[in-house]
Design a protein that fits this description.
heterodimer, A: MetI-like fold, two-stranded antiparallel sheet, 2 strands, B: mainly alpha
């Protein structure tokens, strides 16, 4: 649209000129263009891609240690002094015995070329655990957001489309779910799962997956509300009347005509909740209810460095996972923010 | 309006019953309940006979089925009795009351600071949209939102000695100060937790102010105000900001749960005897009356919070009609 100065052209010529100068863009391309124009969204994208590369490609390059492997090779020695005093007449003799014993476990090692980030209290390599933990955190957050979206779209779609008693029942369930205090409830479920493990019904490795599965069961209410609200307004649009007149099936009307129009808002809320899922998972692991120590998650790593006698001297244990969590959450938040601006039909830039 | 409020309150009662049933079922699904732990600890000293086990279960009211147990709890609730805590046999209500004070103080002071810092930041970011200032403010508050509370708490703890502040705990039992001097003594223990809460919560409030402010700044009456030659200062603070106050005031009512519910992780890290920390300990040990009482307290707060903010909305914005 650069021909604003050709004011004296006849309308026909102007139309022709416009035609040549205007590039047709699909809505998708416009969104992409607006998204990439914002520097913050690019920064967010880079952060997330870097984390994915670190967690999935990293272990292929860094093969010296595995996440669940204890380092038992060390030439460090433990010295112990024993003191013995006895009195012989009026003379006091003190004997000191010093024993030298090799350390069986190379734990709390400082960062060096063998362990770039040192080892933790159990002799696990911190860098390998960082990669492993990232895999767990990212996979879990994507899985749970995916599940929440499915629940939300199905229930919200049903409520919005059918209305009446279906709507009433689903919305009352949503009311109850929104009033459930999320974190305390997860604590209860977490302790229950731990007790089940002690009885041997469950493996600790999968506890965090069950916990996050439960979290998805109680947190789809927000998404369902969003979808329902959108569908209530879309239902009245002309194209839906047309779809009705064409005699399409209900499923086709909901999933082919209504849901795609809800997608923009849905994508934004999904991206933003990816970050909060990572925070949830990390908090649970930090309280010892998430992944057990052998299967590192970022929260677990911070927890293992959180012991009062350790945390000041061994920052190499708990600072890197903390920075990773911040990077992940910040990245998702930047992308979500950028998407919100890009998908906003009223946006002018 | 009155009819609307009554209707909402009745609906809330139904919702609360639903919530309490769900929570109760979940708690009773925990395979280790408090009685079992008690028996295990007694077993170390002497053998526990079947009869004694039976008695212990009876005394904690755990040998009924889930439905019976729930009905029992509900019946007591109708007499405003939430039962006694298993661990120290004190009434749950007074336990909640005793530990709520410190959580409330932290949340209240943090909220005041949050509003005082976030609103001016939101306004400058909106009036200078897409400028360096907007980007810097946005990046900083986004980092604040993304900080995991336990990690940031630990960072604060590791710099606490350098600032001359205590890393954890609450109050010094060895001093004999009373009254006001005693209160002053508690201040250093609260500084870091309050700072933590403020940093984590500024982001949301600032983004909210910015979005609302942008929406108002693009409206027609702002253009009119500019067109008639008002100073930019007057346009922003007298015309635009007043209308951004609507959602801000509304959200004030929605703050009810955050003020009273306590921050579980913050209190746990800093070793504060607030309600969140007590609730964590109770949950881990399976203290059913306290868990039920605490969770219902939270649910009630969040229901009231939503109701108050709806009413507030109608009061602040005359265009909104409740129905």
């Amino acid at each position: 649209m650069e021909n604003t100065d050709n004011k004296d052209l006849s309308s026909e010529a102007m139309e022709e000129a416009l035609d040549k100068n205007v590039r047709l863009m699909s809505p998708g391309r416009m969104v992409m263009r607006r998204f990439f124009r914002s520097k913050l969204s690019i920064v967010g994208l880079v952060m997330i891609v870097a984390l994915f590369v670190f967690c999935w490609i990293g272990p292929l390059i860094y093969t010296q240690w595995e996440a669940g492997e204890m380092d038992t090779t060390t030439d460090r020695m433990v010295y112990k002094t024993y003191e013995q005093t006895y009195t012989d007449g009026d003379e006091t003799h003190t004997f000191y015995t010093v024993t030298e014993r090799p350390v069986m476990l190379n734990n709390l090692a400082p960062p060096d070329s063998n362990h770039p980030l040192g080892t933790d209290n159990n002799g696990y390599d911190n860098l390998a655990r960082l990669m492993q933990g990232g895999k767990i955190s990212l996979v879990i957050s994507f899985l749970s957001v995916f599940m929440i979206t499915i629940f939300g779209v199905v229930f919200g779609g049903l409520a919005g489309y059918f209305g009446g008693i279906v709507d009433n029942v689903i919305m009352r369930v949503c009311d109850i779910l929104t009033c459930l205090p999320g974190f305390p409830i997860l604590l209860i479920v977490g302790t229950a799962l731990m007790a089940w493990e002690e009885k041997g019904y469950l493996s600790g490795q999968y506890r965090i997956y069950f916990l996050m599965g439960f979290l998805t069961l109680i947190s789809w209410a927000g998404t369902a509300r969003l979808v329902r609200g959108q569908i209530l307004t879309l239902r009245e649009q002309e194209y839906m009347v047309a779809a009705e007149a064409m005699g399409y099936s209900t499923g086709r009307k909901i999933f082919k005509h209504l849901v795609p129009n809800v997608m923009p808002q849905l994508i934004v809320s999904m991206t933003l909740s990816l970050g909060s899922m990572i925070l949830y998972e990390a908090s649970l692991s930090f309280l010892g209810l998430g992944a057990p120590e052998k299967y590192a998650a970022w929260g677990t790593m911070i927890n293992s460095g959180a012991k009062p006698e350790l945390f000041l001297d061994y920052m190499n244990i708990w600072v890197p996972p903390g920075l990773c969590i911040i990077t992940a959450v910040l990245g998702f938040n930047f992308i979500g923010d950028g998407l919100r601006d890009a998908l906003d039909p009223k946006a002018r830039r | 309006m009155l009819k609307y409020i009554i209707k909402r309150l009745l609906l809330s009662a139904l919702i609360l019953i639903g919530v309490s049933f769900l929570v109760y079922v979940l708690i009773r699904c925990m395979p280790t309940d408090y009685a079992e732990q008690k028996i295990a600890s007694m077993n170390q000293n002497q053998a526990v006979s079947e009869e004694m086990k039976e008695q212990i279960y009876e005394s904690y009211g755990l040998n009924d089925g889930i439905i019976d147990g729930y009905m029992n709890w509900l019946g007591k609730l109708c007499k405003f009795d939430l039962g006694n805590r298993f661990s120290n046999n004190r009434p749950v209500v007074s336990e909640i009351k005793d530990h709520m004070g410190i959580s409330f103080i932290i949340a209240f002071i943090a909220t005041v600071f949050e509003f005082m810092i976030a609103i001016p930041l939101g306004i400058t970011a909106a009036t200078h949209q897409y400028s360096i200032r907007d980007y810097v403010v946005t990046v900083f508050v986004m980092i604040g939102i993304s900080l995991p509370s336990f990690f940031f708490g630990q960072v604060l703890q590791s710099i606490a000695p350098a600032l001359g502040l205590p890393t954890a705990g609450f109050g010094n039992a060895s001093t004999s100060n009373t009254g006001f001097a005693k209160l002053i003594e508690y201040v250093p223990y609260l500084l870091l937790p309050i700072f933590l809460v403020v940093v984590l919560s500024i982001g949301g409030r600032m983004r909210m102010t910015r979005t609302n402010m942008l929406e108002v700044m693009n409206s027609d009456y702002i253009r009119t105000a500019r067109a008639k030659g008002l100073s930019e200062r007057k346009v922003i603070y007298k015309h635009a900001f007043r209308n951004t106050l609507i959602p801000l005031v509304t959200s004030l009512a929605g703050l009810l749960p955050t003020l009273f519910s306590g921050a579980i992780i913050t209190e746990q890290i800093f070793g504060l005897p607030g309600i969140g920390n007590i609730a964590l300990a109770a949950t881990l040990s399976g203290d059913i009356p306290f868990i039920m009482g605490y969770n219902m307290f939270l649910a009630l707060l969040s229901i009231l919070g939503v109701l108050f903010s709806d009413i507030m909305y109608a009061i602040v914005d005359p265009r909104v009609k409740l129905s």
